[in-house]
Amino acid sequence: MTQLEQARAGNLTPAMKIVAEEEHRSTEFIQAGLAAGNIIITHNPHHPQGRPLGVGQGLRTKVNANLGTSMDHIDYEEEMLKARTAVEAGADAIMDLSTGGDVVALRSRLLNEIPQALGTVPVYETAVRTVKKGKRVVEMDPADMFDVIEAQAQAGVDFMTIHAGVTRESVDRLCAQGRIADIVSRGGAFMAEWMIYQEKENPYFAQYDRVLEICRKYDVTISLGDAMRPGCLEDATDRAQIQELIILGELARQSKDAGVQVMVEGPGHVPLDQVQTNIQLQKRLCENAPFYVLGPLVTDVAVGYDHIACAIGGAIAAAAGADFLCYVTPAEHLRLPSVQDVRDGVIASRIAAHAADIAKGVPGAREWDRKMAKARKALDWEQQMALALDPKRAREVRESSRPQTAEVCTMCGDFCAMKGMSEYLKKK
What we know:
The protein is of the alpha/beta class and 428 residues long.
């Protein structure tokens, strides 16, 4: 039985207990959220040393870090270092988006060495298999598409992006819409190109029952991919995006009816004034299924600083109800991210997630800031370092400019407001 089926049956699983403890919620709260489909626990029993991850309504906003090889850059040790760096920086999940080299071998290492939830995009491996056979992506065999899902599930992958919402109808609507950036989702483009070339319906959509059968067997969470997500502000919240979202809502209900855990992916590039609307639309159309957003990026011109654009959009999205933030790094739109890019991206999205958790009243979020405020008032630098979202960076910055008086910093020195007020208020 999946975690969803267990919750509906009234059974309390070890994974539910772990999530309840980590989230400072009752087991009844977690169980009820699972049964309703507004909470998921990504935890494939086949994931060696895998750790249950709760995502959804009333829980702490989670952060995912993408990594993986490309045909232009294949360095397995570097990708493993990125994974460890992401975990050290506080990422809750990792997605392996590899498209170059031995993608199976790298995924196996991630599953065996990283306890965080691992996600994949199965169509990437299908495309790699097809190209290695001397064929084009548009010649992918549907049998391979489902074989890859089964193989990845059996290996222990916790959640998978399935591009089942891009259909012949939604591609026609995209063409009629007239976008600037068309489709920027790599998996979405693969499927759209396949459908146009083959003149057939998307196998993931046409045979969605088959996807559900595999995912139910291994308790893999389906992450319904947003193939029509906007790739620039001008394409945001258009007919193509909303048409796909309607389909995803229907597939989400079908998944829950089948006992399969599901979350829905969202945009993308979205103007600041449309972010909240996008979240509300998704929650309404997808019946409060957990929402997993890429960013969203609130401007197209922050090249080299897209992690900041992502954090701004992510904070607003999460405060409005998004449950899971996929990070964006400073290298977005430019190249494969470096190890430092990964760290910067995770930290930026964690700041956004925490800011949103304060606004949403997530248990423990505001108390964390309260403790930091008290440590600052007490000029307790060790406690401040311990409470910092990124203790390593905080300590590096302080050590780089040591004050003459240890209890203050070099910004104010002996003119420190905290120090002065503490001394004179004692005389009142």
